[in-house]
Design brief:
Chains A, B: Keywords: DNA-binding. The structure is a homodimer. Chain A is mainly alpha-helical. Helix content of chain A is 72%, strand content 0%. Chain A is built from eleven helices and no strands.
Amino acid sequence: MGAEPKRTEEWADVTPDAARRLVTAAVAAFAERGYHATTTRDIAGRAGMSPAALYIHYRTKEDLLYRISIVGHRAALDLLRRARRPGTDPATRLADAVRAFVRWHAEHHTTARVVQYELGALGEEHYAEIVGLRRETDAEIRAVIEDGVASGDFAVPDVPGTTVAVLSLCIDVARWFNAEGKRTPDEVGELYAGLVLRMVGHRAP
Amino acid sequence: MGAEPKRTEEWADVTPDAARRLVTAAVAAFAERGYHATTTRDIAGRAGMSPAALYIHYRTKEDLLYRISIVGHRAALDLLRRARRPGTDPATRLADAVRAFVRWHAEHHTTARVVQYELGALGEEHYAEIVGLRRETDAEIRAVIEDGVASGDFAVPDVPGTTVAVLSLCIDVARWFNAEGKRTPDEVGELYAGLVLRMVGHRAP
């Protein structure tokens, strides 16, 4: 469970190897100094490449940020979709979704911070595409909460507001999570699954 | 309830007027481009002043960030302390604290984002001072939760973890809150007060 295997997994779909190294370098640079204070030269240097070599893979710095945002948002959305197993009750599905979403934001907190805090630096079309993925993420959580309300398992006076709060609670783990801290990503996921079931008024049978 | 009166109030204690204008300009610049991509020249320009005039009030760019962080953290802490009225039950106090804390993070979302996301840019001593204020903020919420557990009003299996979650939920309002959105700061505060009472296992009498 070291950092390296996770990071490899995080960007496994980015090929070839040079493109993946550039993404990893860009995440580190953006996290350290912010998007606007980072140059493509900084990123290429961190990846041990020339600025010219960077442009073979990414047209612009914004292109790199877009790629990072797409991979990050898709990974988080896929996790939520995998929690949608048929035949399970809404409470189990919501708890599984929260566990997985929290674990992702804790393990990949550096990527998650870049993705969340630098949204405004994306170009108009790229921004619109990311907003679309965020709406799908929102819809996944909302659907589970609605199922639980329909089945009588949950009591939620304000479903859209509660959906925003649940997602916000999980996403903000990326801000405060400390890999050297007292709690593991799994422990935070477990705590949060319980808190979210309380937020939706679930009563354990 | 326009933006201007609020902003004046936010920095009312920063004097003289030129120092206040510089703080306002710095918050806007840091929020737009990040701390590291902003120069003191940018900040002075936004405030309609010369770079030399800036140095009369702040020795460095870091000094400005520190001042913004101190004012922001103290304002949030003061709000929580004001909610600690004697003679009120823990549920009322916790709900009041959440309402006030959420409203502050919604109304001052630009300042709150700068304060939260640029912590790492503070010098060592300044960082330590801010961490101290954050511990005091944490202690305010934890004390109310502990009071509620002691009185039997709340049922909380993990008080430190739940304290982190409650603060995180409120702070993250600054990330997603949109002044042009559907909900006012007061409405989000009301929704969140209810959600937090559920998180601490409060049952309405």
